[in-house]
From TrEMBL:
GO terms for molecular function: metal ion binding. The lineage of its organism: Bacteria, Pseudomonadati, Bacteroidota, Flavobacteriia, Flavobacteriales. Pfam families: Pirin, Pirin_C_2. This is Pirin. SUPFAM superfamilies: RmlC-like cupins. PANTHER family: QUERCETIN 2,3-DIOXYGENASE (PTHR43212:SF3). The keyword Ribosomal protein does not apply. It comes from Imtechella halotolerans K1. Residues 10-119 form the Pirin N-terminal domain. Residues 147-234 form the Quercetin 2,3-dioxygenase C-terminal cupin domain. Belongs to the pirin family. Fe cation binds at residues 58, 60, 102, 104. It comes from the Bacteria.
Length: 237
């Protein structure tokens, strides 16, 4: 097993006044040659947006974009004609493909916190598409719930993207032991600890720490406190 540790305090950061951002990988004005991507995982931004503010209309292409709202609400509007509000418990996916423009604004009266995640696609210049779904937290108790999977390996319960990647969310009680088996040979796992404390691969992670693991088939960890985890299985290259 190989591993890489990304501590919360070692992330890039930016304060735009209305936006407080933490970057797990190089993004915008933050550049770290050792943190460009983890396999096909290119961006994991931990954003906090002030009330009444947000990202005006801007373009994307050839990227699979996943948004997970942790607090507050986010309004979305795009050039495909979609208008939606995303709230905690919901996940949004967007295949930018040949090109799309969208805006994202805080739709609540207080700070909205969210994860913006980009994954390189396995197919270029696809037709842009949009998906959004609400997931029941009860299905994440002491287990992982799959919320995003590849188009060709999707049971209809999760959203899908154009890449061999699986996004999973789980809430684990203190002293819970859990294992995750990698679904596709050659994939790795990037674990982002949203809350709590876990021990994994001989390391202790705290809130907003992350670990990347590859060249292994099974990942095991212990929740040292009540913990919420985002686990992304992703193609390595």
């Amino acid at each position: 097993m190989k591993k890489i540790i990304h501590k919360a305090h070692q992330r890039g950061s930016a304060d735009y006044g209305w936006l407080k951002a933490n970057y797990s990988f190089s993004f915008a004005n933050y550049y770290n040659p050792e943190k460009i991507h983890f396999g096909a995982l290119r961006v994991l931004n931990d954003d906090a947006i002030d009330a009444g503010m947000g990202f005006g209309t801007h373009p994307h292409d050839n990227m699979e974009i996943v948004t997970i709202v942790l607090q507050g609400a986010l309004s979305h509007k795009d050039s495909m004609g979609h208008q939606a509000t995303i709230t905690p418990g919901e996940v949004q996916v967007m295949s930018a493909g040949t090109g799309v423009q969208h805006s994202e604004m805080n739709a609540s009266s207080s700070t909205t916190k969210l994860l913006q995640i980009w994954v390189f696609p396995d197919t270029q210049n696809v037709t842009p598409r949009y998906g959004q779904k609400k997931f029941d937290p009860a299905d994440q108790q002491n287990t992982f719930q799959n919320v995003v999977s590849p188009k060709d390996d999707n049971d209809g319960k999760a959203l899908w993207v154009h890449q061999q990647t699986y996004f999973n969310l789980g809430n684990f009680s203190k002293n819970t032991n859990h294992s995750y088996t990698i679904k596709q040979e050659g994939n790795g796992v990037y674990i982002f600890l949203l809350e709590g404390e876990i021990t994994i691969a001989g390391e202790t992670l705290h809130t907003r720490d992350a670990i990347g693991l590859w060249d292994t088939q099974t990942i095991s960890f212990t929740a040292e406190s009540d913990s919420r985890i985002l686990l992304i299985e992703v193609l390595m290259y």
